[in-house]
Amino acid sequence: MVVAPQSPGPDGANRSATAAGRRARLAAAGRAGSISRSYSRMVGVLKYALPAIGLVIVALIVLWPELQHTQVDISDGAPRPAAAAGEIQNPRYSGVDEAARPYTVWATLAKQVQDEVFDLNRPKGEMKLPSGMVLNLDAQTGKLDRGAKSVHLSGNVTLRRSDGTTMVTDAADIDLADKGARSSMPVTAEGPFGTLSAGGFKVEQQGDVIIFTGPTKLLLKPGADKAFQGTPQ
Q1: I need a surface site. Which of 78, 86, 112, 194 has the fewest CB within 10 A?
Q2: Would you call 175 helix, strand, or coil by DSSP?
Q3: Is the pTM above the cut of 0.90?
Q4: Which residues, 6+ apart, have CB-to-CB distance to 165 below 8 Å?
Q5: Cα separation, 62 vs 95, whole angstroms
Q6: Per-residue b/e over 12-32, b at no fewer than 16 CB within 10 Å?
Q7: What average pLDDT is seen over the chain?
Q8: How far is CA 57 from CA 43, 44, 54, 70, in A?
Q9: Is 226 helix (H, G, I), strand (E, B) or coil?
Q10: pLDDT(226) > 70
Q11: Could you give the CA distance from residue 177 to residue 127 in angstroms, rounded to a whole number?
Q12: Which residues pair with 191 in a beta bridge?
């Protein structure tokens, strides 16, 4: 006897359709969960990566002029590259004093106005003092005289000594040969001794002694008699 195949009834078809739909929903939910986890991981990575990338970009913008240009030595009268207007990018002037202690002055731009005289833009300098301390200086503009081994600084002139003493004035003259400096402009100072304002200053004994001149107001810290090397006058 041959039995004819029976077609599924309406109930069986409905159950099959329901099961297939459930499987489809579970598969879709699994894919959605996987996508959600991947998105969360990506967001977590970007939360830390984007600020880091931003810092790198900012650092490159700030340092690019230093990375792009090499300094040009103007310590002697040798020919050197200059722009059409006679300007020298990233000049550097260096030498040693009578005791063979080095000093260096550099700037973003220099223009030779006489045989031995250069106008400087954003000059900076570093000098090693007899005591072993280092004197750093910077200003908005400067005038370097190679013959006299001196620099006149103007505009927010800042001198920092490695013992923590910082002086700020509008103009100052620096003698590179003997590590001296002086200014007749009002000056403010801060350091291990305390805080001070004066009518001017003189840096003597090759940078180890600072003498403040003119009307002087001084606020000493406790124990400043051991730290303060200047003598207000």
Answers
A1: 78
A2: strand
A3: no
A4: 189, 190, 191, 192, 193, 210
A5: 29
A6: eeeeeeeeeeeeeeeeeeeee
A7: 78
A8: 21, 21, 5, 21
A9: helix
A10: no
A11: 10
A12: 194
